[in-house]
DNA sequence: GGGAAAAGCGGAGGGGCCTCCGCCAATTCG
DNA sequence: CGAATTGGCGGAGGCCCCTCCGCTTTTCCC
């Protein structure tokens, strides 16, 4: 629709460039307000906060909330996408410091730690992730890209298998988060991540 | 329809022994009716059928449905527990025919095939499984028991690792089902199951 | 057999989710 | 400078979930 300027490659802006439509300013303030309120709400209440409350507290109508964020998951993603992005971005640094297999495990641990602090979020995202089509194509792509980078390096150094689709690893990882979501066993999650790493190691024939 | 022999210890019967309370007969008929209708409904409509419809079609009030099955997941479990049980029970036969690692993969495949035909079910169980406390302790226990049996055998023959908790394998497996639930990639699920098996093979040092 | 008590039934009702549509404010053009 | 147009707002309303409570049916005890 709107012709986005190809300014920064590889970093698609969340919002369409800058003020081309002044009226947007109002809309944008609403949007950011909603995100801020939602962040607070999600942090406080562990799970399902009535969206109506968020709308009211942000001083907008429920209709406006739904225009900006058509589904509950969309709102959640908006709230956490920056944080998730930071995690995805942290992969290269880990790759510089550690061998790929260790880096991958560390990176997964980092991801897991984040997810652990946002159990409420996971509870909400669960449906969206699992039923697939609804949500998070962007975030998920970045996660997969991070994994792919690590896998590629690992393939070169021989510490990780070459014949694994990064997408599969993402799916597996999310699966672990999904199914450990509420069973509250922090070490179990760690063990499962270890298992994933084991699966990704080349079998020395 | 009532095969409940008190034979095997450790296998708690789903229904409390047999007819001690005749009145129960009426109640039981309602219950079974609900299950039958629900089975048909779940098979037909891929996902969320209004529980009210099921109640109406079964000729009972919504209140009765909720008394018998306090949550949606409880109803789903009731519908599929016998089938799931059959899968769990099929493990020993596979163990007789194949080496443990192969048997485990085959068994997982069987489970997966079942889940695949019941995507609607998974969609519903998702919440229950993932948010843990709500549902399916019984069924899950049987699944874990089946896995444990295979793992034990595999440990003896040396084709599977000894240091893995069966519960972890269950969690992992459910995680795969959870996160592949709707992304409709039948082969991907297979690849992920292969990865699990790889993770469970002893690393030949 | 008859009456009391228990067991079970069913639907009304309150709450949240999401959609749809009429109204206001900013923008643009004559 | 004023009027048509467009972008955006907000809440009323329909749907489903689940709970709660008065009513019917069955059983038990004399």
TrEMBL record, chains A, B:
UniProt region (Disordered), positions on chain: 1-22
InterPro entries from the UniProt entry: Homeodomain-like_sf, HTH-type_TetR-like_transc_reg, HTH_TetR, Tet_transcr_reg_TetR-rel_C_sf, TetR_SbtR-like_C
Swiss-Prot/TrEMBL keywords: DNA-binding, Transcription, Transcription regulation
Residue ranges for the DNA-binding region feature of this UniProt entry: 50-69
Stated name of the protein: TetR/AcrR family transcriptional regulator
Recorded superkingdom: Bacteria
Location of the HTH tetR-type domain: 28-87
